[in-house]
Amino acid sequence: MTSMVKASLIILSLLYPFIVYWGIQHDAYGWLLLLLAGLFVLRWLTASSTQERYFLCLAVMVIGCVVWWLGEKNGLKLYPVIINLSLLFLFASSLLTEMSFVERLARIREPDLPAKAVSYTRKVTQIWCVFFAINASIALATVVLADDKLWLWYNGVVAYVLIGILMVGEWLVRQRVKAV
Fold first, then answer.
1. What pTM does this model have?
2. Buried b (16+ CB within 10 A) or exposed e, 27-39
3. At what angle do helices 29-46 and 50-70 cross, to 10 degrees?
4. What is the pLDDT of residue 8?
5. Residue 145: CB partners within 8 Å, gap ≥ 6?
6. Residues sharing a CB contact under 8 Å with residue 85, sequence separation 6 or more, in sequence order
């Protein structure tokens, strides 16, 4: 069941900007709030740590306050901001430990990483932290300053393209570093 929950979470998260945009156009805020609640329940069920669950509780409270203060529309549009901040928190907090998040991922495929690779994975983790901070800021700006179409365009397309570019770029750099 856990893999099915995770797959559902990924699909709903990817489609979320399109669903919210449609719902905003049709004044379906009640249904959208239920969807957002469902996404948070799925995130809770798949959370890997107590820290992540605490962050989710904080996120729900923040979004609840925004919905109460600014209305449903802006509260619903905050989900991409919360996801980016969650990932920033996850990656940044790993920099305070001996093993960075990217190093943990790398050790799945290669348990005995050389010291050079450990240093490299720490740098990659830092790059992802910068990316998530910038992406969260832009996503927040699209909520506060932009119209619904720009919010959809950035959070439903551009952000995913940027993630893909960073992943491919990192992979290319990693190949060059490995060759040296």
1. 0.82
2. ebbeebbebbeeb
3. 170
4. 79
5. none
6. 55, 59, 132, 136
